[in-house]
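Think of the structure tokens as a kind of shorthand, similar to the way a musician reads notation: each symbol stands for something richer, in this case the local conformation of the backbone. In the example below we present two proteins back to back. Begin with the first one, reading the sequence and then the tokens, and try to describe in your own words what changes along the chain.
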Amino acid sequence: MAKKKKKRAKSPTAERASISRKKRSSDGAPKTAATKAPVKKRPGRTAGSDGVNKSAEIRDMLKSRPELKPAVIASLLQQRGVEVTAQYVSMIKSTLKKRSRRSSIASSDKVISLRQLAEVRRLVDKVGGVDQLERILDLIRELQ
């Protein structure tokens, strides 16, 4: 009677080695950028073969008619020969909203920098306190 060899469980390093072997091309060489499939470009990323920048077209349409829904904008652009989906229009629209919110927060008069606070603090110390500075500001308002 011949003894049968018991199969041992693969060690973690052996499993990693078998996985790395699977990532090789059919001839055994490691896959490189030349052997990988080409990356598909995302829609609207750059001007296509017809020279149309889809994102710019969407932004122009949103500026001229902001009340329109993404599906309507997509159909209008498709009539003009620009192939876009309602989902893509919606993404561009939400990006514009985020940008406008960010810029309005940054340019708001309510934003006070640390440098401005430090200058006002020095001025308060220089004139003798907050009450004295308030009196000075009241006098300036009356003169205007």
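Once you have a description of the first chain, move to the second and do the same.
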Amino acid sequence: MLKIKKILIIVILPLIAGCVSVLPSSTEEIIHYYQAESKKPYDDILAELEIAIAEHNFRITGHSRVGKVIRGRGTKDFPEYDTVQFCNLTHAKTLLQLSPHAVSYMPCNVVIYQFKGKTIIKTHLLPVNTENKKLNNFSKKINNKLRQIVDFAAEE
């Protein structure tokens, strides 16, 4: 019985090691953000953000009004905090074909919040310094769109 267990271990360990070697390595990653500030009324920024998203051929997939919900639960004078998620399925398909691991960047997301008398509009950018040149080039195009969306919403 002990001999069979040893044989199984000898046979199974290389198989397990082979499976583990095809998994992506666990590395830390720096996420870059782009942000703009505005003193426009908060609701105007949200409205213009929605217009900019649509003009760049994205669809809003979610909108969390975090500040509003917290105020609704009894915390008076809680500032505004919103997250708006959006996606373009054609871009999503391309991104995932270039790198299945890029799913962690989806959907696109913009946060809007009040801080020290200003409204901050902020988005995370896709990585542009990977070993995959096609992914880097595609990410540069999407990052340009994300910057334009943020800038449009912030524009006075």
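Compare your description with these statements about the second chain. The chain has five helices and five strands.
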